[in-house]
């Protein structure tokens, strides 16, 4: 159910019905499961119109609320701020399956041996007396303390390397005990082993950790937000881990958000290496039952560290101490369908509500967060150098102006020579091209016809291996014509190079090289990324080519060269974030070079070598880029100077959509004139992609320097706008993209 509805509660059920519990109700012809928003009293009978017709709740499905009061409150905030139906927010917030009409699969459980400490040794003197020279026992004891007092035996010996005899000695001396405990099954059990967390922080790391620790300690009185900007490899993850250890050691829990689990297996493995079975990993690869297990373990406090993607921001952690958002600039934190929430904004509200610290980390923070930090709203911490002795790679632009785009020109001489050197020296190369398929446009040279999607106003991409033309927006596919459908001429040409074509060019240029391609087309299976990456790590691949998915979080010590085939792909998008996204992507992929002992080199091919996003990427200069870009967004005003909402009217008929967009804009201008000041309207105009999945699209932007008045206008629009029922109005507050 999308909206809130009122039901009568039979007296035999009213005893233990509380908000946040699931109930079965009759809805129209069908039975549905809904979440109880609030439980009212029965004495409003007389003034509740239609009360006699209220249908009864049929069954209460929970003993304990699925969402506690805090999370219900958080959902209400999301529904309110993003102008979304509360029912859809509940659905986004709880594990999938929980609110579907069938009950989720039962949870499979197994038993494991767990070591628990039984002694407390508050002073150093007592500690020395107790352990003497038994250093390993002391280490094991202190590690258990930092994990909150217990860990599984398997994690202690296989994960952390404490021998059974050390643990047995602790038990024999009455300082620990071993018992059986039911634990949830663990889909990440087979994850790759990782290095232990370094024992000594650099002075820079220590300074940052000390600052964050103070904020953590102060959070119960004064919850705050910290932005940690640190170049890739500066040791941010190590800091998150230490900070979370602090929180756990005082009995609190922690939430870590990452952009995409499949692409960041190493990050997850590092948390697991330290926190072992205290970690619940929440990701889309989990079955409904697995996710339900993890959810319950967090709610009852048997796991205290949650790692997950966007929706994990609703994880039911108790006594929350800290939320960490890694790569906080990443676009995947914004949900692309209703409720169109941004996990960073939700986390900020949650942290304030539950009196926790929010830490935002990135090498290239979003301009919104950077702006907030610059104005003192967030505490700012910075790490300028890599944590290891390795230097940042040298970055060079390769000016491709004047060359002709063709298969043989994919690689400049410089890039080709650099790859050759790596092949000769048995080093690895990473190549980025953020465009998949073989060619992005098929065009008739006689009449100009372009192969376009029937449902979307975009050109079709030629996938050569499958011999199909494919729409990357809706998935439509068709066969490749050998004559122009419009003029029957046979002179059809292909333009716009994609990863499939680069793979072929590489194969021809370096016949002996072992090449792997990683993009949506090659990573269909659940763990396909992992398999490709393992081959790279085991040095069974010389050149890894891919879309932006190769830019994220990978630590591949054998890679000494990163090449960007065409940096202009994202730069030329008609979107106000195009430059920001390009700078972020280039910085991120450049950060993959030279993470081992040898210096890295980055070569970027472009037709726009003077663009600030590229210039500042060369010098690794985030601060100058941000300053220039923030200045650029003053006229016309865009975030972070203004808060914006994108209103999209869509429907099957072009003129009807245009008419509705015009009347919505007119209506909004009246609302704005009558309402609180400071809100303005831009548009309407056709969207940059003016037809998508068979629907024509027009949009307009509402801008304001304050959240309150903007929200008022949006709620008004959602409630009573003049958009006809034939068309749809979608509201995207704080949009990540305007395409
Ligand atoms: P980031 O999260 O900023 O990319 P990481 O925490 O992943 O950085 O650290 C980058 C690399 O440096 C990792 O291999 C990590 O083990 C190593 N490292 C981090 N801090 C230290 C330290 N204090 N001493 C030695 N190595 C460190
Ligand atoms: Zn033609
Ligand atoms: Zn399409």
SSE order and pairing:
Blueprint: H1 11-14, E1 22-27, E2 30-35, E3 57-60, H2 69-81, H3 86-93, E4 109-117, H4 124-131, H5 135-146, E5 150-152, H6 153-159, H7 164-172, E6 176-184, H8 203-218, E7 225-230, H9 236-249, E8 253-257, H10 265-275, E9 279-282, H11 288-299, E10 305-308, E11 320-325, H12 343-353, E12 357-362, H13 367-374, E13 379-383, E14 394-399, H14 413-424, E15 428-432, E16 439-444, E17 461-463, E18 468-470, E19 477-479, E20 492-497, H15 499-509, E21 515-518, H16 528-537, E22 543-546, E23 559-564, H17 568-571, H18 578-590, E24 601-606, H19 612-618, H20 622-632, E25 643-651, H21 654-674, E26 679-692, E27 695-704, H22 707-720, E28 728-733
Parallel strand pairs: 7-12, 7-13, 8-10, 8-11, 9-10, 11-12, 14-24, 15-22, 15-23, 21-22, 23-24
Antiparallel strand pairs: 1-2, 1-3, 4-5, 4-6, 16-20, 17-18, 18-19, 25-27, 25-28, 26-27
Helix pairs in contact: 2-3, 2-12, 5-7, 8-9, 18-19, 19-20
Bound molecules: adenosine-5'-diphosphate and zinc ion (ZN) (2 copies).
Question: How would you characterize the overall build of this protein?
Answer:
This protein is an alpha/beta fold and 739 residues long. The chain has 5 domains: 11-93, PriA, 3(prime) DNA-binding domain (GIY-YIG endonuclease), CATH 3.40.1440.60; 110-183, Arc Repressor Mutant, subunit A (Orthogonal Bundle); 203-383, Rossmann fold, CATH 3.40.50.300; 394-438 and 497-632, 3-Layer(aba) Sandwich (Rossmann fold); 643-733, Ribosomal protein S10 (Alpha-Beta Plaits, 2-Layer Sandwich), CATH 3.30.70. Helix content is 32%, strand content 22%. It contains 22 helices and 28 strands. The strands form 7 sheets. Strands 9-10-8-11-12-7-13 form a 7-stranded parallel beta sheet, sandwiched between helices. The chain has a 6-stranded parallel beta sheet with strand order 14-24-23-15-22-21, with helices on both faces. Strands 26-27-25-28 form a 4-stranded antiparallel beta sheet. The structure holds adenosine-5'-diphosphate (ADP) and zinc ion (ZN) (2 copies). One zinc ion is lined by residues 453, 455-456, 471, 473-474, 476.
